[in-house]
Amino acid sequence: MDRLFFKLATVILTASLSAMAQTTLPSPPIAKKEPRVFELHGDKRVDDYFWLRDDKRQNPEVIAYLEAENAYAERVMAPHKALEDALYKEMLGRIKETDLSVPYKYGGFFYYSRTEQGKQYPIYCRKKGDLDAPEETLIDLNQLAEGKPFMALGAFAVSDDGRLLAYTTDETGYRQYKLHVKNLTNGQLLPDTAERVTSVEWAADNQTLFLAVEDPVTKRSNKLFRQVLGGATTEILEEKDVLYDLGLGRTNDRKYLIAISISSTTSEIRYLPSDRPDGEFRVLFPRAEGIRYFAEHRNGEWFVLTQDGGKNFRVIRAPVANPSKENWRELVAHNPKVKIERLNLFAKHAVLETREGGLEKLTVFDLESGQSHVVAFPEPAYTVGGATNAEFDTTKFRYAYESPITPRSVYEYDLDTRQQTLLKQNEVVGGYDKTQYVVKRLFATASDGVKIPVTVTYKKGLKRTGKNPTLLYGYGSYGASIPDNFSSNRLSLLNRGMIFAVAHIRGGGEMGEEWHEQGKMMRKKTTFTDFIACAEFLIKEKYTSPARLAIQGGSAGGLLMGAVTNMRPDLFRVVISQVPFVDVMNTMLDATLPLTTSEYIEWGNPNEKPAYDYMRSYSPYDNLKPGAYPAMLVITALNDSQVAYWEPAKYVARLRALKTDRNLLLLKTNLAAGHGGASGRYDALREVAFYYAFLLTQLGIEK
Description:
By secondary structure, this protein is of the alpha+beta class. 20% of the residues lie in helices and 33% in strands.
């Protein structure tokens, strides 16, 4: 009897202590409810938290709520501050704080950037003639950032004669860039400026700038201007179709300026000889729905990467004098199994960046002999692509390579001899042995039988017990392929026994254009079911379990996080949702918001009932319901122009009112940044340390 009483008392005491521990947690902020009703297509939606929207981001009540959420997050995480600080120190300890990028040659100068210990931002420099020449500082972002909580560099364009620099800066995180022109001979800024500039190119006269500029409300890049230094600024082109954005570039041989109108399905190029800045842009090929194309120039001939002939692109050659279709010559045929992602053109060679079976390759063409060869890479998962190649008349091609276990490495490849030289591999300070880590490329089976690539990385010696803590990352939108890259920060997870996995789900572009199309518009839910299939695969293969599985995604990947959590809250222990696109209906029904109209062909136009009904069925905010949810950290930024802060704020407010569990739900808002978070490298590292600490402690890893 005494033994039974003791056991019963122990159970009661344990339960009491547990309850006390729960009650010692601070109470979260509770957002007030102000119901607002929206009706469309016979459907009624009630939004209790619409009041959190403030287009000017100055409403004191809204700011107070965001600050209260930040304070709550800090209080809840305070017991784990030692772990957060330790994570920050060890991640910082792996970074070579004073470092130098690989210099590249342009004109008579070598350009590079460098960082200095203790300074948040890079310094952009050049040397004339050779690398032993005196250094000339072009832009010191640390000086520009003085007294400002945010600083980002956008465009960086040097005139052909090397005397002038046009650059743009964003001081809020709203991705709204202002033009500056600097005289590099005396260091003075010219009075020529412009607002809301999205891209900049010089004409060959060294006096004329061409600027693409965005709409002040929708942020759609829609107008092209000609700006003569010290003189007139003239609007020369407007893209009126709301599905398109207008961009600006210059061919690698510097002969032509390129203005491109582009949507996610179609493009149209206009061109102008760079030595005739007063001329008119001419259309290369008129836009044709469903066909995107991109152009480069060499010796009076266009080299065109086009979907005319297949979704995965082919390469054709056409004379500038008469580029009509009857004069096309095919360089590379369309291949349904190989997506051509980029064309790099030089005086004697072309280098194609392609993707086959989810892996990237480089294919080199000798344009004089007609011969070609493929540059192969041995690891099972990696990412590779062209680095800065500013010279046209060269036989050297620079590319950057990395994998989940290989730090970023810049190589110079001789296109004739095939000899490659490692110019720089990012140093992991303190010693790093890649042989102590394992990378695998696996395939999960989706609900319709399609094989989904999954990249898995972990510390050597790990056993598949079914209980390993695991972080599964996903995105799956816009045809964007998630790179299998290296992160020295991620070593802090791997060294603590975690597995890091990437689900290369449909909606992305890993397996070609069709991969994107199978996860967009009225097939968007395929993205979500693919991700769930990848999670179930990792569990089935005994890499992890629902109690030890965390998931992460940002922006459109935040939509993914919200959707799969609504669909399968039982499958995940922790969710990290960064700048998440979760209020799908309200956003896509408001044409005044940035990105909305141009993305009708990615998500659908909810003003049409079939699209409305489909989007309504998965919109994370609109499909929250009472029940248990995983522990969740939602990260946003006040000045985010891509996904407005009120989307995640409203999402957290509604979820907190509906959830029936005691799992943590935190909202962390950076009040001085935008979509990408903090701009300074040390501040950004602090943000990573915070969410790593949340992730680890919620998975039961306290050290």
